[in-house]
Amino acid sequence: MSHSVTYGEQPGSMVFDPATRKYFVAGNTKFLIKQAAESSLVDRIEVSVNGGEYQLYEGAIKFEREGKHTLKFRAISPVNNWAPVQFTEVFVDLTAPSTKAIFSDQRYFKNDETLYAAVNSSITLQAQDNLSGVSSIEFSYDGKSYMTYTAPIGIEKTGRQTVWIRSKDRVGNTETPIPLEFVADGTPPQAELSIQGSAKPAN
């Protein structure tokens, strides 16, 4: 009696991290137990979720809570032959990454609630995801059409601007877009040298 677990109904809903050797799945991933075509007759399949008692398998299994989960299953034939117990361990990732923006070369300052940045400087984006890992970082100038971030974003025009930033992790969780508002300033300060006091003519 041969059986297997099928993961997910959406592409990319499960990933393997070779660094930690862990399987990560999205919150919408469903686990289906299927019988192999060459397998003998099966009377029933029993499953144990997270170390609980074995129960009759009746359909897709979905984990609602973030973190580690275990799934064990076994098949029983009509003449009461038991297949070896099979075991699967996964980590459910429900949390989107977090993205931060770094203005280059210290060419910015914040006055009250307004952030000022120099024209011809740039913005570097960094993202962190503590579970499945970051898949991509994106940015948008209108909050609708997003582009994949591959290099620092150049500030090329003056005036008040908004750049929307967000990240996605490897199982499809997408961060709520963050509006990055700033004023780009390309005007250098004006200074004059004024000498006060009386000057005596040189001899």
Summarize the helices and strands and which ones pair or pack.
Elements lengths: L2 E5 L6 E4 L4 E5 L3 E6 L8 E6 L5 E2 L4 E2 L4 E10 L9 E8 L4 E6 L4 E4 L2 E5 L3 E7 L5 E7 L6 E2 L4 E2 L4 E11 L8 E8 L18
Parallel strand pairs: 3-9, 12-18
Antiparallel strand pairs: 1-4, 2-3, 4-7, 5-6, 5-8, 8-9, 10-13, 11-12, 13-16, 14-15, 14-17, 17-18
Strand order of the largest sheet: 2-3-9-8-5-6
Structural class of the helix and strand makeup?
mainly beta
What is the fold-level CATH name, i.e. the topology of the largest domain?
Answer: Immunoglobulin-like
User: Element order, helices and strands?
Assistant: EEEEEEEEEEEEEEEEEE
Report the sheet with the most strands, covering strand number, pairing sense and barrel closure: 6 strands, mixed
Report the span from N to C terminus: 114 Å
Radius of gyration: 29 Å
Number of helices: 0
The poorly predicted ranges are: none
- CATH top level of the largest domain? Mainly Beta
Global shape: rod-shaped
Mean pLDDT: 85
Helical amount: under 10%
CATH superfamily membership of the largest domain: Immunoglobulins
Q: What is the annotated CATH architecture of the largest domain?
A: Sandwich
Percent of sequence in beta strands: over 45%
Q: What count of domains describes the coordinates?
A: 2
Which oligomeric state applies? Answer: single chain
Q: How many distinct beta strands?
A: 18
